[in-house]
Design goal:
- By secondary structure, this protein is α/β, with parallel strands linked by helices.
- The protein has one domain: TIM Barrel, CATH 3.20.20.
- 43% of the residues lie in helices and 16% in strands.
- The chain contains 10 helices and 8 strands.
- Strands 1-2-3-4-5-6-7-8 form an 8-stranded parallel barrel, surrounded by 7 helices.
- It is globular, with a radius of gyration of 16 Å.
- The two termini are 18 Å apart.
Length: 221
């Protein structure tokens, strides 16, 4: 996966699950092919295999568990996520925090099976504490801005600057409220290597148009 990147988390929005997930994934692939931009998506475990088979862009799991084969009813096995075609996984999202012990074990399992990891953090300080566990990227998302109308780029540019300073270059994604090209441009100009967003695309009336505009921000930066 090349950087800078736009990762869209489909979450469990009705517009981004089931057949809608497949259609939305194909829109992302179309925009990536037309623009040459690096786009990736994160989908739920039920849709993952079908989506990964249908598109040629990186597909992430939204979560997995630090387990191996065995009696783990209801858990998500990293080996099967990889087999299903996932490029990587999100971990410790604000909507599914898992704590440091599980973070360490999850990252270990991901390295064992060859999954790219995006580890989420709520503040630059948290990101600084987590980077020692060596995720591939850290996504800093202030929880109070997630799903809101004001982006982290505009409400808290200092958050991005601090995250890059504390974590290091070529390591930080930012998210929360990302909606327009300017949000992307600001984030990258402050040192981030990409953005993580969800509803700005998944709930849009025209996801194709929104993605085209976001990519414009990527290229402007």
């Amino acid at each position: 996966m090349k950087l800078p990147v736009i990762i869209v988390n489909f979450k469990l929005y009705e517009q981004a699950t089931g057949d809608n997930a497949l259609e939305l994934a194909r829109i992302h692939e179309r925009v990536a092919k037309e623009t040459g931009a690096s786009l990736a998506i994160a989908v739920n475990p039920i849709d993952l295999a079908r989506v990964a088979e249908a598109v040629n862009i990186p597909v992430f799991a939204q979560h997995l568990d630090p387990i191996k084969f065995g009696g783990h009813t209801g858990h998500i096995l990293p080996d099967l996520i990889k087999e299903a075609g996932a490029y990587g996984t999100l971990l410790n999202h604000a909507e599914y925090p898992i704590g440091n012990e599980k973070i360490i074990k999850s990252l270990e399992r991901c390295r064992e099976v060859g999954l790219f990891t995006v580890l989420c953090a709520d503040t630059p300080e948290t990101a600084r504490d987590l980077v020692k566990y060596n995720p591939d990227l850290i996504a800093v998302e202030p929880p109070e801005l997630i799903g809101g109308d004001i982006s982290v780029s505009k409400a808290g540019p200092h958050i991005i600057e601090n995250a890059v300073r504390m974590v290091g270059e070529n390591k930080v994604l930012v998210g929360a409220g990302i909606r327009d090209p300017e949000d992307v441009t600001i984030a990258l100009s402050l040192g981030a290597v990409g953005v993580l967003l969800a509803s700005g695309v998944t709930k849009a009336k025209d996801p194709y148009l929104v993605l085209q505009r976001l990519v414009g921000g990527l290229k402007q930066a």
